[in-house]
Amino acid sequence: MSASYQRMIFVCLNDRGEDNPKGSCGRSGGVELLERLRADLHERGLKRVVRAVGTRCLGQCSRGPVACVQPEDVWYGGIQADDVEELIETHVLGGRPVGRLELGQRQLTGISEEDHPLPRFERGE
Ligand code: FES
Q1: What range does the domain containing 58 cover?
Q2: Is-contact 63 41, C-beta < 8 A?
Q3: Which of 21, 24, 77, 111 is the least crowded, having the fewest Cβ atoms under 10 Å away?
Q4: Is the CB of 28 inside a 6 Å radius of any atom of ligand 1?
Q5: Is 125 part of any domain?
Q6: Residues 6+ positions from 14 with CB-CB distance below 8 Å
């Protein structure tokens, strides 16, 4: 049995300051998103299986606040604290992405998944 978390949710908290034209998740709701996520996971007794972590820039600044759920590699953009209940109900407990907030592979990298140069990581037996 694995001792690792079943899900890791990375939330960008990067803060470029108030006047930076590029914007940043830390200024558009990322901090509140992580606080609500941690509180809800705690209330639901999920904090030992789902870990919510604040990060620096995840490279999707114009789409912030940004969160990434691993290991399924689902990315969310424009996700706010008010979306946390739906994220937990639909994604974490329901096993389906929240489609209205999901960022597609082409949005993330500008290239399709089929054109990615690196193979997917596969753990050996
Ligand atoms: S500041 Fe959040 S993705 Fe760049």
Answers
A1: 7-114
A2: no
A3: 21
A4: no
A5: no
A6: 24, 25, 26, 30, 55, 56, 57, 58, 61
